[in-house]
Every structure is written in structure tokens, then in C-alpha cells.
């Protein structure tokens, strides 16, 4: 019998060399994918911009929680449970806000009412003066004011201004309440947050990272404590000076000076200007004396008090502090200026403990 021939193995299909049509990219597909990427990035930026206020609230609350943690630990050393220490700190913050509002709102309301009551008589005296009559004859001041007041848009502008002021007050109250609630939750869960954060680091490096992280938290707390001490001292000095000079709003202006002193670089100047203007309304010469006093005290605070208080809080060169505060203020405004100096202190600590030793070993 004749053996059957085995079938030939199937030959692979012949490959043709690539032509220009096969090598040409699909420009439509590339453009479509690129447009989707740009659109996704734009939507992400818009979402982050819309949620900027929420991120700012979270940053401020976390900053306050870390800064107030040394106070909580001090209360715990007095054998208070953590929840009682947190509750005591929160009650202290609320009490300060209540005292601040109580000291600010009644005098401000009284001044506005007094101004509104004396406005007609002040205008009559102004109209009777020779200077105003000559000014009205030249530029028709009364006619222009009457035209603005009797215009149809004047009522809408006044109403819109009142609505705008009310909206600003409501937003400020909402922001303050939100930050207080977030600070409460962060203070309660700060040890857990730190432990979870350290678990993202490999076990072999976790001890060193924990040591640096704990020192950063300690420095932030020391910075806030130092700022509060400097601000409180400025408020006490302002109260004593204004009380001795016979100012009727010594406590109110002292609280304004203390709160504005928390703003880096320009806070003390803002408080001095506000207090001097408030005093100058009743007595211009005394207002000038007040301004001179605060300028002298500002120099003492900047070159004597603050360096001694902050010596162990933030071990950062003053030039770095000023640069960080300016950059933080340009990026996030007042919040950025407040967060910039502790951030610079944390980066300086990382450079000294991690980066520079490794560079020396090479």
C-alpha cells in the first residue's frame, strides 16, 4: 500500500511592507484624545477653584488643631481625659469670641447711631461755613448731591450695598462656625490622623519620620503659643495705655489690637492705625499721641519681645520668615500669611534632619 503524503505545513501569510497609508497617524483620533485631556484638566481646575474655600477651611482648622494640641496635652497632664481637655479648649475659644463680639458690637452700634443723629446738624453747620458756600458756588456741590440722591438708581444702590454687607457678615459667621466645628473634629482625631499618616511610610523608615513629624507638630504648637503670647501682651499694653489716657473704648480697642497682632508682618501696624483713628475722632492730638506710642511699642515688640518669644518656637532665619509670609499672602491671602511661617519652619527642619545629612554622607 502506498503511504499517504503528509499535508504541507501551512505557510504564514506573506507580510507586506508598510506603506505611507499604514504609517500615517490618525490625526483625528489624536486630536480627539488631546481635546478630552485638556477638557478633563480644565474641569478639574474649575472644581478645585470652586472648592477653594473648603480647602482653606480645612487648612485653617487643621492648623488650629495642631497648634492647640500642646494645650490639650497640658490639660491631660492634669489628669483630665482627652474629651474634657478638648471641650475646655473649645469653650475657651467660644468665650473669647463672645467677649470680642460683645466688646465690638455695642460701641460700633452706638457710634453709628450717634453719627446718624448728629448728621443733620453737622450738615447745617457745614452749609453755613464760608468755605462750603464758596465751594458750592464754584462746583455746585449741593446740586450734584441732590441729583445723586433723587436719582432712580440711588435706592437700588443703597439696598444692594446693605444686602452686600449682610452677605459678608453671614459668610463670615458661616466660615467661623465651620472652622470651629472642623477644629473640634480634628482635635478629637489628631492622634489617629497622625498614626494613619505614618503608616504610609515603610516600616524601616517609620521611626525617623515619626520623630520628625512629632517635632514639626510641636514647633507649630509653639509658634501658635508664641503668637498668642505676643498678641496678648500687645493687647494688655494697649488696654493699659488707653485706660490711663481716659479712652471710653479701651477694652474694645485693646481686643482689636490683640486680634490684629496675630497677622504676620503688618498686624501690629493695622491695630495701631485703627486704635489711633478711633481716638483721633474725639481728640486729634490724643490720636497723634496714641499713634506715636504704638509706633514705639511696635519697635520694642519687633526687636525685643517677639525674637525672645519665638527663639525656640521656629528656628528660621528672619529673612526666610518675611519671604515665606509674603509668598503665602500672595497665594492665599491672610490664611497663607498665617500658615507660611510654620510651613517654612517645617521645611527647614526637614532640610536639617534629612536632606543635609544625606548630602554630607555622599
TrEMBL record:
Residues 8-22 have a biased composition (Basic and acidic residues). It is a multi-pass membrane protein. The keyword Transport applies. Keywords: Cell membrane, Membrane, Transmembrane, Transmembrane helix, Transport. GO terms for cellular component: plasma membrane. The chain crosses the membrane at residues 27-48, 54-72, 84-105, 173-201, 222-244, 250-278, 285-306, 326-351. It is found in: Cell membrane. Residues 1-22 are annotated as: Disordered. GO terms for biological process: transmembrane transport. It holds the Pfam family AI-2E_transport. InterPro entries: AI-2E-like. Belongs to the autoinducer-2 exporter (AI-2E) (TC 2.A.86) family. PANTHER family: PERMEASE PERM-RELATED, TRANSMEMBRANE PROTEIN. This is AI-2E family transporter. It comes from Nocardiopsis eucommiae.
